# Entry
Amino acid sequence: MTEERQAIQAPVKKGLFRKKSKDPDAQKPYVKPKKIFAYRVNRSFGGDLVLILFLLAVGIFMLFPLVYMVSNSLKPLYELFLFPPTLFVRNPTFTNYTDLFNYSGNMSVPMTKYFFNSVYISLVATALAVILCSMAAYAVSKREFRAKGPIFEFIRLSLMFTAPATSIVNYVIIAKLDPVDKYWPVILPTVALPLYMYMIKNFMDTFPTSVLEAARIDGANEFRIFLQILMPACKSSWMTVILFVVQATWGLDTGAFVFKEEMKSIKSGFSAITSVSQQRYGVACAQQVILLIIPLVTFIITQSNVMASLATSGMKD
Amino acid sequence: MKKLVLKPSVKRKFQNLDIIVFLGPYLAVFFMFTILPVIISYFIAFTNFNTMDFPEWVGLENYRRLFLEEEYFTMALQTSLVLAAISGPLNYIVAFACSWCLNEIPSRIRTILTMFFYIPALSGGFTFITDLLFSSDRYGFVNSFLLRLNLIDDPIQWAVDTDVMIPLCIVIMLWNALGQQFLIFLSSLQSIDRSLYEAAAVDGVSNRWQELYYVTLPSIKGQLILNAILTITSSMTMVIPTLFGSPTQDYKLYTLTMLQNDYTARMEMGYVSAVASIVLLISVLLNKLITFLISKVGT
# Structure
């Protein structure tokens, strides 16, 4: 009798409602083994260590362009044109950066205006891309309707379209629609890309449909299901989409249709400074480093969310 | 007064009306800026269009020029296919291997290392570094290093020697491989359900390689296909590093994209569109093949 009871109680090691028994072993609270590498089965410590060292070596090699870029921006002018070229800076100065700010102080339109234009373009493009693409992905992934197959095939096909032939036609189409001094010709072509939609759709496909059915039976309407169940579950996919859109739009030139100086992007503003002469090559290097800040910050924010979102998955079909 | 009762068949029709709200805005923008230009440009493939005047219908003239009259297209096609056949699979495998390795390690270190790996893609790639490394004089970093070790007597002419050009180009492409595909792989690996691994361990999967083949790959099949499409497209539309100049030595490494750019500069949009339609055709065929292969994984 006692043996039988022990056998039943033994696996129940934690929980609020566990029965109190006189067996001293069963009283002990269950302590999760604390190991750094214990997060997955089938892994050896040695294998992980080798992997980390290998990745660290490759990773440091990948930092190479950034190091060169930063060191270039710290070089005085004569060192930039030195022959043979040097990788690291010898006499670091901040003149390139101070020059950049002095020049931008003298412009007819303040640099902050260019900056906020770019921020505006990136924000609107990101919001539109995430909203449009995830809504479309929901319809294609989780709903049934007759045109679904053909529409999805078309989207998949359009992933393979190439830019050179279409860019001029695109220009002609936009030119017909009164685009001068407006932002939509800059923003809209970057928004509804098939890649973003396809990516989010792939993630939604892995989410169990039965959960959505349950919510539907409980009386949630489609928008609520989409916003409160599906979108949080697919966070890692649209976070990556945010990164792609910011990356694509931040460095964007406002292009052929924006003529007003106060509507141009920060790239245009900076290039007005740097394209004047060869003497401003150092300033151009400093400007590259400054332009990198926003995508880098976006990368850190979005990727830390991608990493965090795995904690919420765990639904079973 | 009679109450309005909808027939079940009519009711079913209106039930799906919210799909229009979900799908409509996307499709409108997508059609306007992606599909419509492509459709028009494939009509232009049958015309003579110089971007100024209205297109003039010439039938299959552009295609006749491509295949029969000028040797540039066949040359560029050959180069592009060779480069795509080598660098496409390599890039795909490198992107997957890196993201898989990163997925294996603890999360703190992973976040930092991911940033290191993605920084070239954020900061505009290795282009300016490659010019520095593979400069053809004796002060190019690789040349001066090799000269110092007495491995070579004269500096290697990286951008001129046609035997060196193709391998070097592939190596440089590999450096640039860690872009969008890499991040897509990583985020999909991150979102695999952890309990699948535990279940697999119970079922007798005993090391990471078996796990990779029987659990990981099948559960990210969708992303595998997406990335395959992206890789095919990017390797068919490959732009070679600026190091090699344009046009390149003896028209080696003259890719289809370079051909299209050259003819765009000559305002021969009909010709460019004809080339683009053939590129699309090849991409679609390759994609069918790859999708078939990926669907076999893990079965």
About this structure: The longest strand of chain B covers residues 47-48.
